[in-house]
Design goal:
- A hairpin with a 5-residue loop joins β13 (about 235) and β14.
- The model is unreliable at about 1-30 and about 105-135 (pLDDT under 50).
- With about 500 residues, the protein is mainly β.
- The radius of gyration is 27 Å and the shape is flat.
- It has 6 helices and 40 strands.
- Strands 16, 17, 20, 21, 22 and 23 form a 6-stranded antiparallel sheet that branches. Strands 25, 26, 29, 30, 31 and 32 form a 6-stranded antiparallel sheet that branches. Strands 8, 11, 12, 13 and 14 form a 5-stranded antiparallel sheet that branches.
- About 10% of the residues lie in helices and about 40% in strands.
- The protein folds into 5 domains: about 1-140, no CATH class; about 145-250, Immunoglobulin-like; about 255-325, Immunoglobulin-like (Sandwich), CATH 2.60.40.10; about 335-415, Immunoglobulin-like; about 420-500, Immunoglobulins (Immunoglobulin-like, Sandwich), CATH 2.60.40.
Length: about 500
């Protein structure tokens, strides 16, 4: 029954998280992949598996009912397996692809909430845990959650073309003799079964929707993984190969001056002020560069023939800590720093991790008795302090902190993406949450008592995190989260996976 397979699959996740007692069998070459969505179950099995490897997969994933030894001996499914609705599909010369459409017998544990149509019932992060557990691959969050402050594209020949807002055509030129080509990347969970490319006069093509930001990808040509030969931007894939890198741009810089200059570069705090890294091109007498910038506020300048210039079309400029005047731009929504009181203060600044703690850069203005500064920050957690007439102070209205007085900082949470909830414990005096996302600081993240329990809205970066609640002086696991793993104290930590 498919329900038994799915439940056993989830059970193996729990076994991995709690004990990791099973031996891992190394795989060389192609790796087995197990996918489960609301549309059905798909299993890719390399045809060159050894008997011991096949036995391990059958045991770990509870796949005995599929009678896989019969498949490997005869090249076809056992009649009893076919009668249960399983199909053997053509997946090339290197894989068996076994699939079964979803039915009404899917039973999931009560804590498990299905995603939207087309999304995995089992989050693909957990599938990657299973993959690592079975020796399938090494999980590297950077390959699945690629992030960047900025980025530009470089192509020998344009193989990723924006057709319209959000829709891009990926092209693999040539390879006329290939039988099948697929596009796999961080944007589709590195799927083996999705995004089948179509053969055209110039090669192989497919259209994909991409959000602004950094994306990693490869082409799977008749089962072999290949970086894009037309793309000069690449980085290590962790397996002695490379992933191609593509940035969906969201920002254009223009320097409408010195059309006669030989070369013009853009530099800023986003690229460490490297003055020959981002070269601009001349379009109709205007120097331009298209790039990706993460949400936030940035200082920048132009360099034309060894001289530096502010942006003549941007009136916003500030002096940095080294005395240089820079133009400023931002990407994202505006938030506000506010400080009430201090009517006699001559000047108030704010400084934090977002501006390298520069104490003389971001000046607040007094309006109706409140010191205020509009600013743009990307999603995240930012420590900060106010400087009132030269004296550093913690925001008296802040509710979250890092460190301890007198060296503590207030925390600004921008676009929280997770709510920690601990129900019960009505008589506790203080509840905090601490984990790998805040360095296990047991002082900073105090939860608020509400009618629904203790609550904290916070930003948790994409990837895997461990955490616990501290109720007064007692550490406890999250009683509503069944994912946990052992720690060095043999007391366990709850596990949280966060998708972008």
């Amino acid at each position: 029954m498919r329900s038994a397979i799915v439940y056993a699959f989830l059970l193996v996740v729990g076994l991995f998280l709690t004990s990791q007692v099973h031996a891992q069998l190394p795989f060389k070459g192609e790796k087995p992949i197990y996918e489960c969505t609301d549309k059905g179950t798909v299993i890719h099995l390399p045809k060159n598996l050894r008997a011991a490897q096949l036995d391990s997969i059958i045991s770990n994933f509870d796949l005995a009912e599929l009678q896989l030894p019969h498949l490997y001996k005869s090249g076809s499914l056992h009649p009893e397996v076919s009668a249960m609705g399983w199909k053997l599909e053509n997946a090339g010369s290197k894989y068996y692809k076994i699939s079964k459409a979803a039915d009404n017998e899917v039973l999931l544990p009560p804590h498990f909430v299905p995603g939207k149509p087309g999304e995995p019932l089992i989050p693909w992060e957990d599938r990657m845990l299973i993959a690592d557990f079975s020796g399938i691959s090494k999980f590297n969050p950077a390959h699945f959650y690629p992030t960047a402050t900025w980025g530009i594209n470089r192509f020998k020949r344009m193989s990723v073309i924006e057709e319209e807002a959000g829709l891009f055509t990926f092209i693999l030129f040539g390879h006329e003799a290939a039988r099948e080509v697929r596009l796999s990347g961080s944007f589709n969970g590195w799927s083996l079964s999705g995004d089948l490319m179509h053969k055209t006069a110039r090669g192989w093509e497919i259209k994909v929707a991409l959000a602004p930001g950094k994306h990693l990808y490869k082409f799977i040509i008749d089962g072999a993984w290949n970086a894009d030969p037309s793309n000069e931007m690449r980085e290590s894939d962790g397996f002695r190969g490379f992933n191609s890198v593509y940035f969906r741009n969201n920002k254009r810089f223009e320097f409408d001056a010195l059309a006669q200059a030989n070369k013009v570069y853009l530099l800023g705090n986003f690229n460490g002020w490297k003055d020959k890294e981002i070269e601009m091109r001349k379009v109709g007498g205007v120097w331009v560069v298209d790039m990706y910038l993460a949400e936030g506020t940035y200082a920048y300048r132009f360099k034309a023939d060894k001289k530096y210039y502010l942006d003549p079309s941007n009136r916003i400029s500030l002096t940095d800590g080294d005395g240089f005047e820079n133009s400023y731009t931002s990407v994202g929504d505006t938030m506000y720093f506010r400080l009430n009181g201090f009517p006699q203060a001559a000047e108030v600044f704010v400084a934090g991790s977002f501006n390298q703690w520069n104490p003389r850069e971001l000046r607040l203005q007094k309006k109706n008795g409140v010191w205020i500064l509009p600013y743009v920050l990307g999603q995240g957690v930012y420590p900060y302090k106010f400087i009132v007439d030269g004296k550093w102070m913690v925001d008296p209205n802040a509710s979250l902190f890092e460190g301890e007085p007198p060296v503590d900082n207030a925390l600004m949470i921008v676009q929280s993406n997770h709510q920690f909830i601990l129900k019960g414990y009505d008589f506790a005096e203080k509840v905090v949450v601490a984990g790998s996302f805040n360095g296990w600081n047991e002082q900073s993240l105090s939860m608020k008592r509400t009618e629904n329990g203790w609550v904290l809205d916070y930003y948790v970066p994409p990837g895997k995190h461990t955490y616990k609640f501290k109720v007064d002086n007692e550490w406890i696991l999250d009683p509503h989260n069944q994912l946990w793993e052992e720690n060095e104290y043999h007391s366990g930590n709850s596990v949280l996976w966060k998708r972008p």
